[in-house]
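This part of the workshop introduces the protein records we will be handling. The structure tokens are whole numbers drawn from a learned vocabulary of backbone shapes. The record below serves as our worked example for the rest of this section.

===
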Amino acid sequence: MNTPNRRLVIVVRADPVICGHSGEARNLAEVALTRGFDDVRIVTWPIDVLRAAHLPLKPLDAVMPYSDGITVERPTGVGDYKVPDGRYLAGLTGRLVELFTDGVPTVAMSLYLTPHATVVADARRVAAATGLPQHVTTIAEAVGSDITNVVRSCVESEKFGAAAHLFSTYLSNETCVAVSEYTKEIIIHAAAEIDDQHGTQFAPQCAERIGISYPAIDACQYTNLDDGAIAKALAARGLERDRYVLFLSRLSKAKGVDDLISGFARSHSRNHTKLVVAGNGPEAVALRAHATSSLAADQIVFLDDVDDTEKPLLMAGSAAFALPSKPRPEFVETFGIALVEKMLAGGGPVITCQTGGIPEAVGSNALMVPHSSPQKLAEAIDLAIGGMSAAELRTREAAARTYAMRFDRNNVFDNLFTGLTDTLAA
């Protein structure tokens, strides 16, 4: 077996997790194969651990295969039941140590600071301690919930040690990025609160060192879709083109699906369109009950088995796409990957809220409504369906796709890795 010349390792909650950043990891991995990396590894968690964490998961048989040259590794735990969670972290760290010390120049990228950036930092420290040759450079990407959830929790509960660990680990990487300007701002704000309380200097370091790297999206998967394929996919679901409003994301409180169901029930459009709620998550049971009790119960369809091939077809065939995210203590939308995917796929307008980083994802190409406002959602649905001319809809669709192309995975990869690959030259 030939020794690789250049390796990329991405540590992330990968497929089958329903999360835009698992898709981002896939997209970065695929582009890496075209940019001189001949060994790409996605190092992630065992399937049973993901299930036990109650993360929303795609059916395993619906996960698209990776290209040759990309290896997905799921290290098993080290130790037994006496190390409840640490054994899986030990498995991840141990495998990274092996990859960092086998002589292959490596870029290691972590998506989510907790625990993935910690795992990479620990592995790098251990690799150095072995005395073996190692040539590793690191990237840490703060994607959203690791800041809006973990860091905010540290600040609010005055857990200085945990916050200091997170910030120092983040800043120990050669490259520190956030998925939006909004995410960078809340990192700096949280760091400033820690600094004010304890006299540290994390905020100025964050302000100086954190760059922006928007999520990488495979534009080709969503553009130039075949009309026949769209028609076939819709027919299989009992849907008609331009006759349904689509929500497609994780079913959690922060996504605003409860408001969407209530808004759809108030709209005039419910008399001749459907609402399709596609996804899975912790609120699935409650949302089904909410839909059943609404005036539009007969017009609301839930889908929990949409795969990556069907997703763009459903997006392209919709009369409107709604993601009315709202800020929650446990999560704030720091970008909005599904919104960009929808703008690339075409179809009707996007309806969303100015929550978190969403304005960066959509620019001026969405119908914006206040969060937590079913009435405004109803009005936006009626405007999107029947309130615009065909010419206006086509103009909006073209502008939205043009804007969304800036997030194509090739552009994002090249912006993120410029200069890094030069440091790996033998």
About this structure: The two ends are 20 Å apart (CA to CA). Residues 224 and 345 are 8 Å apart (CA to CA). The mean pLDDT is 93. The chain is about 45% helix and 15% strand.
